[in-house]
Amino acid sequence: MENITQANQNKFNAATYSEALTAFTVGWQDNDASKILNFIAPAIPVGRRFEFKRSDNAEAFYSESDDLRAIGSEFKRVQYKGESVNEKTLNKGLTMRVDHDEVADDDWQERYTQILLQRLLRNELRRAMSALETIAQNDGEKTIWNSSANPDADIRAMLSACADQSGVRANKILFGEDAWAMRLDCLENQSTSVAFRASSLTPDELAAKFMLEGCKVLSARYQQSPTKKAKIASNKIFAFSAFDGASKDEPSNLKRFYTPSPEGTAFRVYLEEHAKYTDITVEHYSSIVATSTLGVRSLEIANS
To answer: Which among 27, 62, 135, 217 is least surrounded, fewest beta carbons within 10 Å?
Structure first.
């Protein structure tokens, strides 16, 4: 029997820490959740308590006409005044109890660790999407993509609106699965060579068309109730800025700050052995933060 429970912090110490399973987490990644999570909110290693500069739009776009230096004088002195914010990473984790009577294979510890990792990453992805929805601006009306619409023109207008607000054009777009399907339906119902060509583009090709660094389609689901699964993103498209390899002060809209273990891993694994069962716990320290709310837009798509 397997029970998933929240872990007791006082159970986690050097005696229960599993170096082997912690090392297993380094090479493992969920191809959907982890890639989309890093696409939306780049991972930034920090200490438990950290400080970062919230992006100040005005500071980034000041322009001088008096930057010329007169002989014998100094250059004009300027100062970056972005707001300093103090934050901390939060302890998150799950425990699974595995009854020894149900253990069949030698790799059971790795398999259950993988299940916990998948669940924790799905939780993080839902938090990142919730944060993205919170900061994204839209006109409050659904965008209709029927047989007479031009979906890519609507996306270009959204990208232009991002640049008008922040001064920087968004570098990524994210489609919910239903929004991507409605774009294809709209284009496939139009009997023109332009629509036919546009409907055949992959997400990477669409990113190149819009001169973006990335475009992805989020199809991940979670168990909303005992009998129903729900899409994490459905009929919306988001335009935002997120830069791989960014520092904690660079202006991605969202960042996922995490605190590495002393060994440098993002996750830690603990094994608490009992006579008839083993508790496997996977934990991590992280916090998803909107470091800049400017230049994030969304479209809610409908087909009629």
So the answer is: 27
- Partnered with residue 301 across adjacent β-strands are 143
Calpha distance 304→147 (Å, rounded): 10
pTM above 0.85, yes or no: no
Closest CA to 261 of 7, 5, 21: 21
Could you report the per-residue pLDDT of 215-267, keeping only the tens digit for each? 999 988 877 777 888 888 889 999 999 987 777 777 789 999 999 988 889 99
Q: How many residues does the chain have?
A: 304
CA quadruple 32, 38, 39, 41: dihedral sign? positive
> Tokens at residue 151, please?
């979906």
Rounded Cα distance, 266 and 24, in Å: 11
**Residue 284 burial (CB count, 10 A):** 22
State the Cα–Cα distance between residues 218 and 174, nearest whole angstrom. 7
Q: Torsions phi, psi of 303, nearest 5?
A: -105, 5
pLDDT at 103 exceeding the cut of 70: yes
Q: Are 24 and 118 in contact (CB under 8 A)?
A: no
Lowest pLDDT segment from 122-126, 140-144, 243-247:
243-247
The total of other beta-carbon atoms located within 10 Å of residue 50's CB is 18
Q: Which residues contact residue 58 at a Cβ distance below 8 angstroms, ignoring those fewer than 6 apart?
A: none
Cβ atoms of 208 and 144 closer than 8 Å? no
Q: Is 84 helix (H, G, I), strand (E, B) or coil?
A: strand
121 Cβ neighbours under 8 A, 6+ residues apart? 30, 33, 34, 37
